[in-house]
Amino acid sequence: MQIFLDTADTDEIRQRMQAGLVDGVTTNPSLIAKSGANILERIEAICAVVDGPVSAEVVATDLDGMLKEGRRLREIAGNVVVKLPLTQAGLACCARFAEEDIPTNVTLCFSLNQALMAAKANATFISPFVGRVEDAGGDGIELLHKIRAVYDAFGYETQILAASLRSTAHVEAAALAGCDAATLPPKIFDQLASHPQTDSGLETFLSDWKASGGASFV
Ligand code: E4P
């Protein structure tokens, strides 16, 4: 499963690129606004440190505006993925970009039917919002399973990008649902490789080694 960081903070991204575990980045207008940066400059800065897909979202709501903004975002770098809202105009833009081989991430997906429409529009990625589905009292993980089942049944190649993930349990559930990718806030990413028993086990190994007079062997 590909792991993307869901942030527009270049420092947060840079710090986490070194281990080679981050496959890409997703941003949205709220995250760009929070960074206080110009969107074009910020996406360019992110693409300078990330080779994988970097989702950059349009803010126009009409087809013509989305086409213009999407093409402008794509001028920044070859790894920019144009993020489009799951609206009629967004789907029309997605279908047009698919014909032009422009990668897309259709966002704000809350239902199986919406995911079906995005696949029919040949989206590269569909982003079901797990946390926000749960905020509204629904089952976000069940939605991921349903999308996986339907995409597999019909052979749709749109990749499922689990989004709005709020916990490490969400990440495990996305993997078990067979999602192609998951995007998560840096603080959740940082917890993925941690376990208290790893920490205590290592502490014991090292204290045993020290007690036996173990010295450096390099
Ligand atoms: C991803 O593409 C979305 O921007 C993001 O995951 C939304 O997460 P939130 O619901 O926690 O804001």
Description of the molecule:
The chain is 52% helix and 17% strand. The protein is α/β, with parallel strands linked by helices and 218 residues long. Strands 1-2-3-4-5-6-7-8 form an 8-stranded parallel beta barrel, surrounded by 6 helices. Strand 4, helix 5 and strand 5 (104-109) form a beta-alpha-beta unit.
Summarize the structure.
The chain has 218 residues and is α/β, with parallel strands linked by helices.
The Rg value, from CA coordinates, equals 20 Å
Highest-level CATH class: Alpha Beta
CATH superfamily: Aldolase class I
Number of strands: 8
Q: Specify the helix fraction band.
A: 40-55%
Features:
single chain; TIM Barrel; binds erythose-4-phosphate; 218 residues; alpha/beta; 8-stranded parallel β-barrel
Helix-strand blueprint:
Blueprint: E1 2-6, H1 10-17, E2 24-26, H2 29-35, H3 39-49, E3 54-57, H4 63-76, E4 80-85, H5 88-99, E5 104-109, H6 112-120, E6 125-128, H7 130-135, H8 140-154, E7 159-162, H9 168-176, E8 181-184, H10 186-191, H11 196-211
Parallel strand pairs: 1-2, 1-8, 2-3, 3-4, 4-5, 5-6, 6-7, 7-8
